Amino acid sequence: MKGYKIGGLMIGFLVLFLVSCTEKSKKEAKLLKTISEIREEYAPDKRTALFDVHVFTDTEKYILKGESNLPEAIGKLRATLKAENITYTDAIEILPSKELGKKTWAVVNISVANLRSKPKHSAELATQATLGTPVKVFKKDDDWYYIQTPDKYLSWVDAGGIVLMDKSQAENWKNKNKLIYTETAGYSYQDAKEGQRVSDLVAGDILEMIGETEEFFEVQYPDGRKAFVSKEESEPYESWLEKLDPSQESLVATSKTLMGVPYLWGGTSTKGMDCSGFTKTIFFLNGMIIPRDASQQVHTGKAVDSVKNFDNLQKGDLLFFGRKATDSTAEKVVHVGMWIGNNEFIHASEMVRISSMDKNADNYDEFNHDRYLRSKRILKENDDALISLVKDPVFKD
């Protein structure tokens, strides 16, 4: 009899234990599902939004650790878990990091800043940002800063590439008179003559303008360095904006000034560019900021073709290439070029070059013809992912 009671107690304990584990598993599954759903809603593309939240457990409670630059997403997560009666220890940091103090803004201080996927020089070149680009700063790791560019791209930059600012300093910088460098590449100088160089410059660089002589503009860098830039190679930013009227012809003309520029994975400047960096640069020099990568650019604008009916294309349309979707695999966009008419498109492939869709042409590109996916028109299209520098004061209020 005694042994039977003990067995009953053991069975009862086992049932209670299994029920407890089942309830805990259900709660944990709900917790993980909630995090996943909020990540999918607010940060579907980790290149442009950070929602890095993970669940840990000890013997008594759940611990949520991680970080995000999306206060609204963390707010929804907390509210949802509260409504579902899920108790946890909250160890989530909302960026910018408190370590930065008020210095949560910055301006690129060199002709081209190389932005990395991780905080080290040996990491993949994710993208670039040109001189004068204002960025948000989220956290610091030794001499590296995690930043977000105006197209929302997230990456790391070393301390030498930017000048940190607080909100007031950043707003003050935006209110200054500006100059935009318009030549493919060149230099600024110490004096109002082409003598000692201060730094190199590339097309699209933006500097504060503080004076002028007959042949030069006097400028100031974000770190306070002063220099002179030839008037033949630059223009007051306001005048440049006022004259902007991006057209099919202006896009083609800009693209051809970049002929022969070498291919550089992660490059978005005239020092070197990848395929989407090239299309991004073309549109930027015509007053538009478009998404960074080909797989992002393909989701903008208006669809114009997907069956190789190139007669439907207009100059300036973007052509996308890659792997078509199958029953078991999703479509994968890996390359982009721009239509320039006459059955030709211009793209960065080994270098910036012109290729043809005409099988009889000397520059026929069979490889890209065969992996063509679709074309999109983004010139003068309304799209939240397309930023007009005329309408949106990215560089100047």
TrEMBL record:
<dbReference type="Pfam" id="PF08239">
    <property type="entry name" value="SH3_3"/>
</dbReference>
<dbReference type="InterPro" id="IPR003646">
    <property type="entry name" value="SH3-like_bac-type"/>
</dbReference>
<dbReference type="InterPro" id="IPR000064">
    <property type="entry name" value="NLP_P60_dom"/>
</dbReference>
<dbReference type="InterPro" id="IPR051202">
    <property type="entry name" value="Peptidase_C40"/>
</dbReference>
<keyword id="KW-0645">Protease</keyword>
<dbReference type="InterPro" id="IPR038765">
    <property type="entry name" value="Papain-like_cys_pep_sf"/>
</dbReference>
<feature type="domain" description="SH3b">
    <location>
        <begin position="103"/>
        <end position="166"/>
    </location>
</feature>
<comment type="similarity">
    <text>Belongs to the peptidase C40 family.</text>
</comment>
<feature type="domain" description="NlpC/P60">
    <location>
        <begin position="245"/>
        <end position="379"/>
    </location>
</feature>
<protein>
    <submittedName>
        <fullName>SH3 domain-containing protein</fullName>
    </submittedName>
</protein>
<keyword id="KW-0378">Hydrolase</keyword>
<keyword id="KW-0788">Thiol protease</keyword>
<dbReference type="Pfam" id="PF00877">
    <property type="entry name" value="NLPC_P60"/>
</dbReference>
